[in-house]
Amino acid sequence: MESAVGGPAQGPCVQPDPRPLVVLAGPTASGKTALAIALAERAPVPLEAIGADARQIYRGLPAGTAQPAAAERRALPHHMIGVADPAETFDAARYAREARACAGGVYARGAVPLVVGGSGLYLRAFVEGLFEGPGARPELRRRLEEEAGREGLPALHKRLSGCDPEAAAKIHPNDRRRIIRALEVFEAAGRPISSLRAGAPAGGFERPLWLGVDWPPEAHARRIEERVRAMLAGGMVEEAARLAREGLEHAPSFEGLGYAEALELGRGGADIEETVELVCRLHRGYAKRQRTWFRRVPGVRWLHPERGMEAAAAEAARAVEAYLAGFGPGALARKGAAG
User: Fold this and answer.
1) Per DSSP, what are the bridge partners of residue 22?
2) Contact 214, 291 (CB under 8 A)
3) CATH for 138-196?
4) Which residues of 322-331 are buried (b: 16+ CB within 10 A; e: fewer)?
5) Which of 139-153, 186-200, 252-266, 292-306 is least confident?
6) Once rounded to an integer, what is the mean pLDDT over residues 268-282?
7) Cα separation of 14 and 65, whole Å?
8) pLDDT at residue 130 above 50?
9) Is it the case that residue 142 has pLDDT exceeding 50?
10) Which residue(s) pair with 24 in the sheet?
């Protein structure tokens, strides 16, 4: 039984995959795609990217989710980009399952997977492994969605605080999807989601290489503003309008940072500078949460592109070469089960 959140395994634990896996993680607008391409040009073995972004997973939303451009995808093969319909709920368990299938194809082609992204739950699900737990309950989820619309998210977050204070403390009061999922798990399993997460992970990888990308705060804030302006000018307003026309204003795809603000801009309810500031604020907050998450991952080798992308790529390539030296001949052949 699959889970969107990761609960304890109900069956035998899947053994970690012993093959090499490189992770390039970092906050939004940190230049991960450009660095991944530069790294692939210098790496001692072929690399193929597997995206780990909870917004880029949706098709038809290239501007508002900053998906890699066609030229970037030609320079470095990318997987797990634009694979889900915007109306779908694409959870971490499905991501991990499909990413594992992608990784299998990458290994079969004699390459090493390079996981590129900033969604901590996706990275954790794929790289570290997930637990099985109660699957989605469509009727229960619909009821909770209706209650959220009727009572408001603060009321649901307060309810979550009563039944699972640990989970509530980690979930932002405006995070509709995670609040509803946590309540869904509690009602379906009769146990808090936080208690379901305690246990040994299923699957994952035995010894991945974690590379992290970060910038000084001032430089990163400038990059975020440049990204936001490019997104709004490049089609995000039109994407937001299309999602609204399709009745998807409460869909996970619309929860991508800034779609509500872009919709308001398109309807004439805000001017461009006000919208830029609102969306930048959202991105800065998200980046802060991402940075906090990544700093808790042990053994990350941090790269600093502000010193030059070429230098950062060269450092990353040296780290990958040293890492791969620890694997014997035939390291890409399947030796264990990843799920």
Assistant:
1) 114, 209
2) yes
3) 1.10.20.140
4) ebbeeeeeee
5) 186-200
6) 97
7) 33
8) yes
9) yes
10) 116, 211
Are 190 and 217 a contacting pair, CB within 8 Å?
no
- Confidence (pTM): 0.78
Backbone angles phi, psi at 329, to 5 degrees: -55, 145
Range(s) within the chain of domains with CATH label 1.10.20.140: 138-196
How many C-beta atoms surround the C-beta of residue 333 within 10 A? 9
Amino acid identity at 42: R
Amino acid at 30: S
Q: For 22-131+199-324, CATH number?
A: 3.40.50.300
Give residue for tokens 């989710």.
65
d(CA 184, CA 182): 5
pLDDT digits (tens, 9 = 90+) for 232-247: 999 999 999 999 999 9
| CATH 3.40.50.300-classified regions of the chain | 22-131+199-324
Rg (CA), the chain: 20
Residue type, 305: P
pLDDT score for 218: 96
- Give the residues across from 48 on adjacent strands: 113
Alpha helix positions (H), the chain: 32-42, 70-75, 92-108, 120-123, 138-151, 153-163, 165-170, 176-189, 193-196, 217-231, 237-245, 259-266, 272-295, 309-324
What is each CA distance from 303 to 18, 65, 189, in whole angstroms? 25, 23, 42
- Tokens standing for 311? 């230098």
Q: How far apart are CA 288 and CA 71, in angstroms?
A: 30
Q: Which of 21-35, 118-132, 229-243 has the lowest mean pLDDT?
A: 118-132
**Residue-wise pLDDT tens digits, 88-121:** 989 998 999 999 999 999 999 999 999 999 999 9
Residue type at 202 in one-letter notation: A
- Pairing type for strands 78-79 and 112-117 reads unpaired
